[in-house]
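Holo model, adenosine-5'-triphosphate. Inputs:
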Amino acid sequence: MAAPLQNPTPQADVGELVVRARGLRKRYGDTEVVCGVDLDVRRGECFGLLGPNGAGKTTTLRMLLGQTPPSDGELQVLGHPVPEQARQARNRIGVVPQMDNLDPDFTVRENLFTYARYFGLDGPEVQQRVDRLLEFAQLDGRSRAQIQALSGGMKRRLSLARALVNEPDLVVLDEPSTGLDPQARQHIWQRLNALVEQGRTLILTTHYMEEAERLCDRLAIIDHGAIIACDTPRRLIAEHIEPHVIELRGHDIGRWQEEGAALADRAERVGDTLLFYTRDPEPLLAALGANPEQRYWHRPAGLEDVFLRLTGHELRD
Ligand SMILES: Nc1ncnc2c1ncn2[C@@H]1O[C@H](COP(=O)(O)OP(=O)(O)OP(=O)(O)O)[C@@H](O)[C@H]1O
Ligand SMILES: [Mg+2]
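Output:
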């Protein structure tokens, strides 16, 4: 059975869809890893795909890109049926894969040229475009460097620059900032925001909830190959989680388990952490305030709370 579509696009807006998937499935042998995904990505939005390890994010993206055929379902990308017209769609898509696959035999600049030729692009105009992209990725000082000499952040930026060589309408990024330090991540975020401002559509996967919350207009949470929620970050938080979270950590939290649960809307214990979710934090804060030795952390609910509530706390690898 297909997963329920969380917010179907009104019929009048279907022409504005950059991706439209219905009942998308992928089986490897006896195992179904994408299990009936319905997905609408609208022109000009930054759309995020979140999910635990092995949820099916990369497989879904690979089907959109025509890199692996769906086992079942309908798929349209930039108006082209995929995989039948994947090549036409791919000409207007830029891809940053989960693992950098830059060519180690070429320099930074040569990597961009080689990729441009793959799209049949050549000539002085491409020289200028490559210069602009090197500047955009702040790699203009490293254009002659070998790939091995680049840091992880530089490689990621070069992958992004390479994805833009064909001036794509849609940019697909699989974990663009995994493994990067905060400076490099901030830099990638600025670049991705700039792309959205230029009117491009972005689809990205990430394990960083802060990244998803900051960048994405809408998000789908995928688990075990099915979309279990899809909305704006704010609406997901408002719909699934009480607005206040109070966390207690340590070996002596046991005494709060009952008292806290009575004062909050919902309580959860994960290892040595007690989490209280509540619409009104005052009663629990007052009780905690009367015990100055008890450390606690009061914070607004976020996407990570939604993610853990919907996908659970068990490890998935
Ligand atoms: N070529 C393949 N052959 C067999 N199984 C595969 C293949 N590619 C992916 N899988 C399986 O499909 C499932 C989904 O994998 P996928 O890479 O799409 O997950 P993901 O959500 O991108 O995870 P991660 O966050 O770890 O990148 C996993 O169980 C994976 O082992
Ligand atoms: Mg993946």
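The mean pLDDT is 93. The longest helix spans residues 182-197.
Archived with the compound record.
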